[in-house]
């Protein structure tokens, strides 16, 4: 069992792995279905270059999400600012849990951006193909290679305007092109891509690589699709919910959201380097340079989304 005492003396890389184990222990105690994703899973499958994750990302079955979150809160974890009053399409796909006795965060996901079918349907598709991976000396449940590949590619594609993510996309596509992964007759990746709705999210990227990827798909969640469009539009990332929060009369919360987003960008830009004034400025400058255009594109995309929602409501009421 993972100790609940202070672990700030541990290296960050060790603490994040222990956090994964902790969530799995909590999940097992509550008979909840949880899948570790991203960080150590990508490293396990050699999908990304070596790096030290700063948080533990875990995808939880939507049916079990609140139970697992409450169990972690009972163990001393605290939820960072809630977004419950945001429109559904702007809400985060995860809650971040922090604990003063741990040097890492836990990102508890109830869905994953780019999996555009209903979250429960997407989770079931990944869960059916689950496997085990050793983490800090304990076996934890993770997606299989195909599932991890899709999540890694979606995460990179979402922020494809960043050069590091563009490089990662090219690396992942090279892996897919070199093996049987994109062949519908040989591998399960194309089928899983369609079942989860990721085929719709990355259609322009995969249409020329996977035959029939632009064919029929399961029912797509409209809010998830619209949220995905906003997130990937010109790399606007967290700007829409930050703007919404500020305009809703909560400037201090918006400022904290911006600080968190900035620290995340700086941290990942420098990977394992300790942030300095130079790296902070380097991480901020691209956003500052793009800010005017990003704001206009964000407003345009939100208007397009609102128009599309009105059209769909009109068709349903007709």
Could you give a quick summary of the protein structure above?
The protein is an alpha+beta fold. The protein has helices spanning 12-29, 39-44, 65-74, 119-128, 145-158, 163-178, 189-195, 198-201, 203-206, 222-232, 239-247, 251-270, 277-317; strands at 34-37, 55-60, 78-79, 94-98, 105-109, 131-135, 138-142.
Tally of separate domains: 2
Largest sheet: 5 strands, mixed
So, CATH architecture of the largest domain? Answer: 2-Layer Sandwich
CA distance, first residue to last residue: 57 Å
Content of β-strand: 5-15%
Helical proportion?
A: 40-55%
Secondary structure class reads alpha+beta
Which H/E pattern describes the elements?
HEHEHEEEHEEHHHHHHHHH
- Give the quaternary arrangement of the chains: single chain
How many helix segments?
13
CATH topology of the largest domain: Beta Polymerase, domain 2
Spatial strand arrangement across the major sheet: 1-2-5-4-3
Topology:
Elements: H1 12-29, E1 34-37, H2 39-44, E2 55-60, H3 65-74, E3 78-79, E4 94-98, E5 105-109, H4 119-128, E6 131-135, E7 138-142, H5 145-158, H6 163-178, H7 189-195, H8 198-201, H9 203-206, H10 222-232, H11 239-247, H12 251-270, H13 277-317
Parallel strand pairs: 2-5
Antiparallel strand pairs: 1-2, 3-4, 4-5, 6-7
Helix pairs in contact: 5-6, 11-12, 12-13
